[in-house]
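User: Here's a chain of 375 residues. Predict its fold as tokens.
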Amino acid sequence: MKLQGIRVLDLSLFLPGPYLTTLMADHGAEVIKLEPPTGEPARRIGQRAGDHSVWFRNIGRGKKSIVLDLKQPAELAALNDLAKTCDVMLEAFRPGVADRLGIGAAAMTALNPRLVYCSISAFGQDGPDARRPAHDLAVEALAGTISVNLGQDGRPTHPNVPVADVTASLLALSGILMALLRRESTGRGDVIDMAMFDATLSWLPNATGAVFGEGRAPVVKHERQWGGGAFYNIYPTSDDRWVVLGGAEHKFVETLLHALGRPDLIAGASGPPGPGHDAARDFLRATFATRTRDEWEAWFEGRDVCFAPVLDLHEAFQRPHVAARQMLVRDAEGHLHIGLPIKFRDEPGTLNPAVPELGEHTASVLAEARRLLAR
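Assistant: Prediction complete.
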């Protein structure tokens, strides 16, 4: 597998860091998860499947769990020895905490110059907001994404997907892989400062037109991607469910409006988003309200239009395409796992469903580190 031979020491908790290291473990990295004596909080959050929470199954699988109390000198020394044998070290403390514990970037890279050291935090290691406490929702609020995530009443609503967490996770993974690649020629690792805030801002290249071009906030209901376009919108159906049109290219507009007997609306629906789309949007809203969601799905079958039914999360995982793509995996014990999204032709990853008990690998991991250092 692509990351076989890469050793990762993961000190992070909850989602951004653990999701990142799960992707690495799925592709062959040895991931050593350092947990506090009380354990990863996700072990205790949400619904359970068997002996573990579903959340922890998704971010703990295929990893080794060790427990160390870093306030104890002997256990801190053990961590230092372990870091000397690793390729990657990941932490997600508030800025300054890792340094106070004696495991900050400067200390760890001095011990191991080949180490790629990555910090994931809400706002980064410097700047006026660096020490401001925040999780995903607060970061999204300050990054402006909540302001464009409006409900039908025009008020900001909960985004319900962890945008800041996962964007930071994926960009941090990219940075780690870049640093490992560069290390092949320089022999040295690097230090990565990944802010969830920075990551969220960076994912807005298609949403900053009004901000950068006209010096103003966007009018959400007039922007194509947020409901300003008739063919990039969400519509209710007769059974109180929903469908979406998800592509505003002229060919899709023409195909659908001809099929519905309203070619007179094509010009407006093909123009710039905003009030010019009102007539087409009103027609489509009234039309979709005449049939059920599933009836519309059957009607659209074979038509070249970007259409989709709005599925609940359970329905989404039951789609035949999910099974075909192996994105829902059942292990030998009957527990379900999200599959591997990165699919290589020659060296595919492998989902290891084993979930470690708290501290299960402490003795064996530290013994292996001592053995490696003694060589």
